[in-house]
Amino acid sequence: MSQDMQAVTIHQFGGAEVLKLESVARPEPGPDEVLIRVQAAGVNPIDYMTRNGVGVNRGWQEDQLPVVLGWDVSGIVEASNSEAFKPGDEVFTMPRFPAMAGAYAEYAAVPAAELAAKPASIDHPAAAGVPLVALTAWQALFDNGNLASGQTVLIHAAAGGVGHVAVQLAKWRGATVIGTASGRNQAFVLGLGADQFVDYTACEFDEVVKDVDAVFHTIPAELREKSWRTLNADGILLSITGPVPEEEIQAEGKRGTFVGVRPNGAQLGEIAGLIDDGTLRVEIDTVYPLADAAKAHQQVEARHARGKVVLRVAG
Ligand SMILES: NC(=O)c1ccc[n+]([C@@H]2O[C@H](COP(=O)([O-])OP(=O)(O)OC[C@H]3O[C@@H](n4cnc5c(N)ncnc54)[C@H](OP(=O)(O)O)[C@@H]3O)[C@@H](O)[C@H]2O)c1
Questions:
Q1: Residue 22 is part of which domain span?
Q2: Which of 34, 193, 285, 302 is exposed most, by the fewest CB atoms within 10 A?
Q3: Which of the pair, 250 or 60, is modelled with greater confidence?
Q4: Whole-prediction pTM value?
Q5: Are 230 and 215 within 8 A, CB to CB?
Q6: Could you read off the pLDDT of 147-171 as tens digits, one per residue?
């Protein structure tokens, strides 16, 4: 007989008010999966987009609800069907994306291949802020962009969840980094290691940034035209905010691609190592209790968080 747990669900699409803390059945781990006692769950823009019915679930009907939201998890292994992890192990993960993962809950069942040991040097709320944004930055800059030492990269929204990790990963790789944000984030972005800061509220970024090798386009798709203008002839546009149509790439005569993040336990393991050796730090803007998921969504939806917003589930 299944046991119950507390989780934040949606029974309809809509604003933050549709989030509901309620009792649901605890998931059962399948073959090669582990059951995690969730300690903290990260909040990402895709969470409120999915709540609105325009995230990973675009085109869903409301009869496919309810679902438990959330992808980023940091927690403790409760039960394991994998030789790689045992009960008591502290782990972090971004499982199943773009399928639903059920992170806003006391327990989550997760494929072992998508897990890594939690960085020992940070607590669960901080670790829960890492997986989705760090995997996105890693897969965009390294797997798709092949960013190399000596190259210059423009990183938009450099104070945000993805951006603040991307700045640090690009510096680690040996790149020169230009970061955009509003003026209040100048010291923060330069403190992450960026070589140059551009205040997007004070100037047009495409008038001051030229000839970069890569642009990490983490801002609305409508601004892509300006990002293209900052690239050199061999440059590459890495978009995570919308598909880049082939006709647009042809018309620009440069390289461009959309990057959709995917789970990857091995990459998370490397990322954990960079956190523990001091190369990478995660900035936590606010930690809310699970019961305040609506407040957390409202903050993320306002699009001005510095670093990450996280839900504390236990502890
Ligand atoms: N394709 C994928 O797999 C994937 C994965 C992750 C994220 N994403 C998408 O990538 C985007 C960024 O995600 P995120 O988690 O980093 O978001 P986020 O943390 O909510 O971003 C907030 C940051 O954006 C900055 N910002 C807002 N408008 C800006 C602008 N016009 N120029 C420069 N900075 C601006 C804000 O800085 P100020 O307060 O200084 O304005 C704030 O620090 C979202 O649209 C998300 O859905 C896609």
A1: 4-130+282-312
A2: 302
A3: 250
A4: 0.98
A5: yes
A6: 999 999 999 999 999 999 999 999 9
Atom in ligand 1 nearest the alpha carbon of residue 185: 40
- H/E segment holding residue 247: helix 246-252
CATH number of the domain encompassing residue 292: 3.90.180.10
Give residue 108 CA to ligand 1 midpoint distance, Å: 26
Q: Structure tokens of 15? A: 């604003």
Do 59 and 131 form a contact (C-beta atoms < 8 A)?
no
What average pLDDT does this structure show over 125-133? Answer: 99
| 63 CA to centre of ligand 1 in angstroms | 31
For residue 251, count CB atoms less than 10 angstroms from its CB and return exposed for 0-12, middle for 13-18, buried for 19 or more: exposed
**What does the CA dihedral 50, 54, 56, 62 come to, rounded to 10 degrees?**
70
**To test the ligand 1 pocket, which listed residue (162, 226, 227) has its Cβ within 8 A of the most ligand atoms?**
162
The four Cα atoms 143, 146, 149, 151 give a dihedral, to 10 degrees, of: -130
Say whether both 224 and 151 belong to one domain: yes
Pairing of strands 67-68, 4-10: antiparallel
